[in-house]
Design brief:
It is built from two helices and 13 strands. It is mostly beta strands. The chain has two domains: 4-86, RimM (Elongation Factor Tu (Ef-tu), domain 3, Beta Barrel), CATH 2.40.30; 97-160, SH3 type barrels, CATH 2.30.30.240. Strand 5 (49-55) and strand 6 form a beta hairpin.
Length: 167
């Protein structure tokens, strides 16, 4: 598990005064400001963050060190990270996406199905994107209690009971 969790990303500049368009990945999107200063993926650059107003699909925000539209354009695509100890503790049945990526996925009979490549959400519920040698194509496993009865972070494994015909 990483000490840094991705909590948002920059989706370009907003206006001509150095504001950025920010996408928040937090359960309560406004909470991203409480984790400021945020860092880059390596944890080397620090970015104080102030939300200025909500905009379509995110927020307009001021990012430390970004004063002009050109500087805002230059940080487009920057992923912003918070330290794990800044984030709230989760209930037993909730997980940070970063903790699921890379876990081995086994079926209920103990056969390795693959590994979690990413966690997707297209509006209905989370889907685990699985890749592996035994899979002919990418498989999207619904991340529900029925399909994923066990997540064991300490052992680095998931036990899955995929819907009939999925794999």
């Amino acid at each position: 598990m990483s000490d840094l969790i991705c909590v948002g990303s920059i989706a370009g500049s907003y206006g001509v005064r150095g504001e950025v368009r920010l996408k928040s990945f937090c359960a309560i999107p406004e909470d991203i400001e409480a984790y400021s200063p945020l860092t880059d993926e390596a944890g080397t650059e620090r970015y104080p963050l102030v939300l200025t107003r909500p905009v379509k699909n995110g927020f307009a925000a001021r990012l430390g060190g970004v004063e002009t539209k050109e500087q805002a354009d230059a940080v487009n695509g920057l992923r912003l990270f918070a330290r794990r100890d800044q984030l709230p503790s989760l209930p037993d049945d909730e997980f940070y996406h970063a903790d699921l990526i890379g876990l081995a996925v086994y079926d209920t009979g103990g056969i390795l199905l693959g590994r979690v490549k990413s966690v997707q959400n297209h509006g209905a519920a989370d889907l685990l994107e699985l890749h592996g040698e035994g899979l002919k194509t990418t498989v999207f496993l619904p991340f529900t209690l029925d399909s994923v009865p066990t997540v064991d972070l300490e052992q680095g494994r998931i036990v899955a009971d995929p819907p009939e015909g999925l794999i």
